[in-house]
Hints:
Elements: H1 2-7, H2 10-22, H3 29-36, H4 50-53, H5 74-91, H6 94-110, H7 142-158, H8 162-176, H9 197-200, H10 222-231, H11 234-237, E1 238-240, E2 245-247, E3 253-259, E4 262-270, E5 277-282, E6 288-295, E7 304-307, E8 310-311, E9 315-317, E10 320-327, E11 332-336, E12 341-344, E13 358-361, E14 364-365, H12 370-373, E15 380-381, E16 388-392, E17 401-405, E18 407-411, E19 429-433
Parallel strand pairs: 2-6
Antiparallel strand pairs: 1-2, 3-4, 4-5, 5-11, 6-10, 7-8, 7-11, 9-10, 12-13, 13-14, 15-18, 16-17, 18-19
Bound molecules: zinc ion.
Zinc ion (ZN) binds next to helix 7 and helix 10.
Amino acid sequence: MRLYEVTGEPRYMALVNYFVEERGKQPHFYDDEYEKRGKTSYWHTYGPAWMVKDKPYSQAHQPIAEQPRAIGHAVRFVYLMTGVAHLARLSQDESKRQDCLRLWNNMTQRQLYITGGIGSQSSGEAFSSDYDLPNDTVYAESCASIGLMMFARRMLEMEADSQYADVMERALYNTVLGGMALDGKHFFYVNPLEVHPKTLQFNHIYDHVKPVRQRWFGCACCPPNIARVLTSIGHYIYTPREDALYVNLYIGNSVEVPVGEQTLRLRISGNYPWQDQVKIAVDSPDPVNHTLALRLPDWCRDPQVTLNGHDVAGTLKKGYLHISRTWVEGDTLTLTLPMPVRRIYGNPLVRHVAGKVAVQRGPLVYCLEQADNGEELHNLWLPDNASFTELEGKGIFAHKVLLQAQGVKYTTRHPEKQSLWHYDTAPPNARRRH
Ligand SMILES: [Zn+2]
């Protein structure tokens, strides 16, 4: 589709359309090929001819128009749908657009982790059923969240609705960037929400999980994929459309965007997502008449926008504040996105989060680690009335915001008996701690 967009050559789009519409048709191409090749197959990870027989794995079990939900290998699913969305827009195919909406909604409303991870099982690196979102055995491959950003980008190009950018931001900050260490040289492939390091080597349900970021992988798709998404991040920050330049992400950058015969130059600065203020300055030497559409994030209750220090009138449409004006050099929009620490609760249909709470500030979901909380994190409880203190980080956490709260730690009532018997008729001791 990108080649079609660059060249305008119709056969490229026709080929994409063929790949998309051929899926799930009977007689099935995979079965025909399997017969022709004397029933041989190269992929046997989950048994003989697994990839031929397990058609949902490759989203090839039925035509996409009939598929009700996100299924199969998570990375393949989002890559496929990125292409379908691109095709739907450029071919103006309403039924394919509906397919994208249906599958996007299923994925983001029923199979998405709070961290923007997708693919809740290791077997087949795949989606599971609706609301089946285990925190420890999850796959949530870095590539899957990158593919989710790609799908979101193409959905935004089809329809300027901030829900796509909200998911994109969630995936970027919490899984894609989290998939790389601050040194840029160590990576996660699998991004679990809960890890108990001591258990990993003994319980084979965790064979795919690593407790720390790794130098490299035998199948090293994720590290270069993170590099690719970061070097093309401009496509995600902005969505240029006829009616407006949509600003999706508040990442520091400078950009030049053609508007008719003119060029609009912008510079975004700030320390988002750690701090709530973002500045968007206009650098164009000549005045440019255009609309800027600023995304107001779903997590922010009280966003404020000023232009050159004064309140600005704008129109809110599907989560974007549209501001139309003849922009001149020196114009500065200041966006303030208050980010108090919030408790986030799971959908009651997700049994894995029953009795649990996540802590989020701005778009960032925070992590509780052994490094500063000691072992056996499952014994820590956050009381309803506990308040949070924001701390400026030091060392590797410089310029970042750390959170501290008073909590409760449960310990065994009879330390001396621990080795003899696991159970007790009395509840454990509760001790307050920071
Ligand atoms: Zn990968």
